[in-house]
Structure prediction request, 206 residues.
Amino acid sequence: MNRKFINKSNFVLRKILNSQENIDILKEFIEEILAIKIEEATINPYLTKLKNKLPAEENFGIADLRIKTTENIELNVGIQIIDGKYIIQKILLYYAQIHFGQMEYEDKREITKTVTINILDCIFLNNNKYHTKLRIKEKSAGVIEDYMELNVLELPKYQSRNQNEKKEAWMDYLKGENIEKAIAQSEKIKKLENLLEEYWKKEVIE
Prediction:
């Protein structure tokens, strides 16, 4: 994984990206990973509101957004980095936290589908795909999938194909490979790289 993410990965990226000034970075990342086009995106207040109330082990996640696609579909989207312990528990707990956090919005929005993007620096699933959507096994449980989509990105499985695609640029950047090329391919990745550089210059080790 990109070395700039290693120390408190979720905390650092959450601190940098949870602002309207930097929502364009999140927007491009979500569009490329989920293969959608976003018309509107706002940062949900749930995790920020509770950040001082949650135990440290629960205060995870990079971002929690409400988006509307160009097809007029509204979604909640959460992004987190997960280490190699209790992976499935962290995926499900994060989904639950983001999904049920919708009740805290206080703006009368309807409950809608929650999509999570879970970034792993380890191999978790027994397949050859670096991007997997976890499914509910029971075929009759389609109503559950109307409210749940769990995306898993396994960085060790990702192999660069040297194509000029922004999704590949993001995967390269997350994995810490071909970083200069990734920055050249995306202005948003370049912006994130500069924000991280500034963050680590100012960071004080406690």
The first strand starts at residue 38 and ends at 43. The chain has a mean pLDDT of 84.
